[in-house]
């Protein structure tokens, strides 16, 4: 990669500021899912083994620039301590005289976790003064928070104006390599699977992928705007009327470019989200009083076919309301189809990761991205502030 990496920086005897994404779910004051914590462990261990002291920083939730005890990183410090098997001290704040003094006292092998960065409005404002105060805590900077790399925040972008060198951590490198492989030199055929609720959230991604993929599979709630663009009545299914014409243009662009776009041919419908069961109908037969909440078995077979021969697969977004058992079969079946393929597969987004776990095939996916928004923006071809801010490799 063209950016400086943590392996290229002499960390011995230095305090290294590591920006991680420790934004994990909490339940009754404890970490309920430590996936993101485990993902950053290799970078932390590398820095410690290299003789560094670590100043670790992250946000948690959306406290909106004020101190909110329910968003304290204390549970994260406790879980990290258990995972690392060494003390992880939590600073009372992320800046200020006491925090600065604490950081300066750190010895090699010690870790200081700063309190929630978003307790200060300067974080999300990318404030230069706040960034300078963070930079004063360390001798060099490592960004291992790809999941937050699409945010121009003080601990991600502005800090690098005050703290150099700025290197990519091990997780950041893995993310960029896996996603770069999709965009730059994918094995062909390349199949992309898009699901989730809204076309508007992924329209830029659809348009960008049309120039890169061989097959585009569209499911989930967003599929019904495309089906409506083809003239289908979709009942009470999720629909974005103001995006119908845009969907029609995207389908026409795909036709001109020779890209195969596959849409559902059947669906599981029900009167409401909380219905105890659903029934399968063709997409031309969705009743006006019902909504489609999952793809049907014929659609699963239709989608499975190109996945059998694909050499690269990228997937973001479930095929239906998979959290509810009556409407999970389509998403689970697709997850198993992706896992069964010989293709290099990359998935991203919390719902997609959860769906793959629900299907029991997590260990058969080529690469699972920890990111959601950054995953989508990278695939859209956008420059991510957190990547752009890193020091160029010589």
Short description:
By secondary structure, this protein is of the alpha/beta class. It folds into 2 domains: 6-173, Phosphoglycerate kinase, N-terminal domain (Rossmann fold); 186-379, Phosphoglycerate kinase, N-terminal domain (Rossmann fold, 3-Layer(aba) Sandwich), CATH 3.40.50.
Give structural notes:
The structure is a single chain. This protein is an alpha/beta fold and 394 residues long. The protein contains 14 helices and 17 strands. Strands 5-6-4-1-7-8 form a 6-stranded parallel β-sheet, with helices on both faces. It has a 6-stranded parallel β-sheet with strand order 11-10-9-15-16-17, with helices on both faces. A 3-stranded antiparallel β-sheet has the order 13-12-14. α1 (35-49) packs across α2. The protein is elongated, with a radius of gyration of 23 Å. The relative contact order is 0.13. The model has no long low-confidence stretch (mean pLDDT 95).
Q: How many β-strand runs?
A: 17
Major beta sheet, specifics?
Answer: 6 strands, parallel
What would you say the CATH architecture of the largest domain is? 3-Layer(aba) Sandwich
**Structural shape:** elongated
Helix coverage percent of residues? 25-40%
Look at the helices and sheets and give the structural class: alpha/beta
Low-confidence region ranges: none
How far from one another are the termini?
A: 11 Å
Strand order of the largest sheet: 5-6-4-1-7-8
* CATH overall fold name of the largest domain: Rossmann fold
Q: What is the number of helices? A: 14
CATH classification, class level of the largest domain: Alpha Beta
Mean pLDDT: 95
Strand content of the residues, in percent?
A: 15-25%
Number of domains: 2
In CATH, the homologous superfamily of the largest domain goes by the name: Phosphoglycerate kinase, N-terminal domain
Radius of gyration: 23 Å
């Amino acid at each position: 990669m063209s950016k400086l990496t943590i392996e290229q920086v002499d960390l011995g005897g230095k305090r290294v500021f590591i920006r991680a994404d420790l934004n994990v779910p909490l339940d009754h004051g404890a970490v309920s899912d430590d996936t993101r914590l485990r993902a950053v462990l290799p970078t932390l261990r590398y820095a410690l083994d290299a003789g560094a002291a670590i100043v670790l920083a992250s946000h948690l939730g959306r406290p909106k620039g004020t101190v909110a005890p329910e968003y304290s990183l204390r549970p994260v410090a406790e879980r990290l301590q258990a995972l690392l098997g060494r003390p992880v001290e939590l600073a009372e704040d992320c800046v200020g005289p006491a925090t600065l003094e604490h950081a300066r006292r750190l010895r090699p092998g010690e870790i200081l976790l700063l309190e929630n960065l978003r307790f200060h409005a300067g974080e999300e404002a990318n404030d230069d003064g706040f960034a300078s105060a963070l930079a004063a805590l360390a001798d060099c900077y490592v960004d291992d928070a790809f999941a937050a790399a699409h945010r121009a925040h003080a601990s991600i972008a502005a800090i690098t104006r005050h703290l150099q060198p700025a290197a990519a951590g091990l997780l950041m490198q893995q993310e960029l390599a896996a996603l770069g492989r999709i965009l730059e030199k994918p094995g062909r055929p390349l199949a992309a699977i898009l699901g989730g609720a809204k076309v508007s959230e992924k329209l830029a991604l659809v348009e960008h992928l049309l120039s890169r993929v061989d097959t585009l599979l569209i499911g989930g709630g967003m599929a019904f705007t495309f089906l409506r663009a083809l003239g289908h009545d979709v009942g009470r299914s999720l629909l974005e009327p103001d995006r119908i014409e845009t969907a029609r243009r995207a389908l026409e662009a795909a036709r001109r470019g020779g890209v195969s776009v596959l849409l559902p041919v059947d669906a599981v419908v029900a009167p409401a989200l909380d219905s105890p069961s659903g029934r399968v109908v063709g997409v031309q037969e969705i009743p006006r009083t019902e909504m489609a909440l999952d793809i049907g078995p014929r659609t699963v077979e239709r989608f499975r076919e190109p996945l059998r021969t694909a050499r690269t697969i990228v997937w973001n977004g479930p095929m239906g309301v998979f959290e509810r058992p009556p409407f999970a079969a389509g998403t689970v079946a697709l997850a198993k189809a992706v896992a069964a393929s010989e293709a290099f597969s990359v998935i991203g987004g919390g719902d997609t990761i959860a769906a793959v776990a629900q299907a029991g095939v997590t260990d058969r996916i080529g690469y699972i991205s920890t990111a959601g928004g950054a995953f989508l923006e990278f695939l859209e071809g956008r420059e991510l502030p957190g990547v752009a801010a890193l020091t160029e490799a010589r």
